[in-house]
């Protein structure tokens, strides 16, 4: 049989039927709906199952007669060696296919988990990816991810919550480094993402200028926005508790019932959960105790659990709430942040004439002067109790009729 020519192939129609290649057994051009186009098919008997099979080799004229013949000859060679070319192709595709970012993250998380000091650290690692990354690039294959995808993921939190953005970036980088090591991608796109994002303010600037609500506005804010939720609403009581205790968001979100001593009206935050890695005792005001009592019965371990997932709330919950209610701040164009209420408390302390040391200890700030620190043997618990009770009374001063 003569080998198929381009002249004959270009004239193929559904009426002319299938055109055998002539030079390779089983290879033929099957017509499509358009004249002069078709699909290459190699028919063969599988050396494994002994069943007849059809292998597609592409479309004509995109795949030329010579290219189709070359591919078919390679397949025929595999068949002679006892290899089913379709089965082999499926195996290669299964091995070489890059996983999605979400799949890779969970694989890496499982590998890293034994190296972390506690399970909570490992859970936080994957939680941040689930919250900020998976909804945007979780379903993308690793070899599809470009720097612009990373930038789009980080941009919503890049300036608003830079510390969290930095941690998220590090974790994305770890996943993509794992992908590069496994040859799923040619490079790590996180390495150049900084060129697609605006510069973040320095840490010193962020510390000094965290958008904070003016302390004089806090009583009205609590009355207007924090006392009108239903009994299953966790965000509002959690934010009010955070304000009254001048605590950090993470300390409140991760708070457990085992840390609360109702008899002594004290919250004891363990060292491993504190920024300075030192145990911190927080005196609880009467209103803070009321909030805790209202939370009893919702979770065996966590004081402020996620209502739906029954686990620790993310740090974005408070940020989203403050944006939604357009919480006033001292920074033009930005809303108040949860961390900013610590600044509000500190300003209030200064305005009311409280000693610097008392205010700083209420914020769990460490004494920077090493000589001075050596002589501090008390955490001034009772003095701080009086301070926080007065702060609580001020914050709720416009809420006496609110229940």
Care to describe what's here?
This protein has 403 residues and is α+β, with helices and mostly antiparallel strands. It contains 18 helices and 7 strands. It is elongated and about 105 Å long. The chain starts with 5 loop residues before the first helix and ends in an 8-residue tail after the last helix. The relative contact order is 0.08.
Strand content: 5-15%
Mean pLDDT: 88
Instruction: Name the CATH architecture of the largest domain.
Output: Orthogonal Bundle
What is the fold named in CATH at topology level of the largest domain? hpI Integrase, Chain A
CATH class category label of the largest domain: Mainly Alpha
The parts where pLDDT drops under 50 for at least 5 residues are: 371-375
Shape: elongated
Give the neighbour order of strands across the main sheet. 1-2-3-4
What is the alpha-carbon Rg in Å? 32 Å
| Largest sheet properties | 4 strands, antiparallel
Q: Portion of residues in helices?
A: 40-55%
Features:
hpI Integrase, Chain A, Double Stranded RNA Binding Domain, 4-stranded antiparallel beta sheet, alpha+beta, 403 residues, DNA polymerase, domain 1, 3-stranded antiparallel beta sheet, elongated
List the helices and strands and how they pair.
Blueprint: H1 6-9, E1 19-20, E2 27-31, E3 38-45, E4 52-60, H2 65-80, H3 85-96, H4 101-112, H5 119-132, H6 134-137, H7 147-158, H8 162-181, H9 203-208, H10 218-225, H11 235-245, H12 249-253, E5 260-261, E6 266-269, E7 280-283, H13 286-295, H14 316-324, H15 340-351, H16 356-362, H17 370-374, H18 381-395
Antiparallel strand pairs: 1-2, 2-3, 3-4, 5-6, 6-7
Keywords: DNA integration, DNA recombination, DNA-binding
InterPro entries: DNA_brk_join_enz (IPR011010), Integrase-like_cat_sf (IPR013762), Integrase_catalytic (IPR002104), Integrase_DNA-bd_sf (IPR038488), Integrase_DNA_bind_dom (IPR025166), Integrase_recombinase_N (IPR010998), Phage_int_M (IPR053876), Phage_Integrase (IPR050808)
GO molecular function: DNA binding
